[in-house]
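step=predict obj=Nucleotide-binding universal stress protein, UspA family n=284
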Amino acid sequence: MNHPYKTVLFGFAFSPSLKINIMETSRIAHFFKAKLLLLHVGEKTVEKEQQILEILSQIEHTNLEISIEWKTGRPDQVLLETCEGSNIDLLILGALQHENLYQFYVGSIARKLTRKVCCSVLLLIKPSEERVPCKHVVVNGLEDEGTALAVSNAIYVSNALGAKQLTIVEEIRQKEVAVSVQDDKSLKKASILKERIRHREDSRVRKLLKSIPELDLKNLKVKTQSIFGKRGYSIGHYAEVVRADLLVMNAPKKTGLLDRVFPHDIEYILSDLPTDLLIVRKTN
């Protein structure tokens, strides 16, 4: 099986949730068989160092390869530079405290990092000191060049975390069913058109799944789900309704000045995260 996340970075903050975040992050690194780099953007003091070492002495998995770094500067810029310079495969974001100012990565900073960072990003909204099993993973199945990688990584993460169910959601824009329903005849026409689109999307995803080794799918119940609605909003709502433990999405494309297309998809999810979110980006 492919191991996409060999080196994981977590920017830690000296906040009330520090211990929970470290426990969760170290657990994830263990399941991914990854090296863990802990980074604090702020001043290093003896007290802070003792506090982080005390927490690390309590983690479940003591065989982890862990390193700690202390840097100063703008949190977002430091994280971007560290991900690039340390060949990070996965950046985990929770909350970062820059001196006495709390900055939660569920807003403008998350949007900035997910656009610019060179690696995949995992946004944690519900870390836990004691492990809460991951049971159901939802991944986007839209027609996009990044979808095969997103699905492949979702399968890897599902197996690594012991999830038993993976749902691939095909978001279909309403404008694809451009039929004005005014009577029984037009209603039937719209229904037939929707069914044809569902069949087309399911066939496309099934074809994608054939490229995945059977062994990787052995312990997973995989289903496909077509949803008609606004892209980004629809899958976020679906993940919330089915109480998914993790939502996996393609990374937004880097399009320079045209990057304003970004709010049309992941923006909806970032503004109201339904669950933990993994944004998959191909590393260079």
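step=describe
The radius of gyration is 20 Å.
step=end
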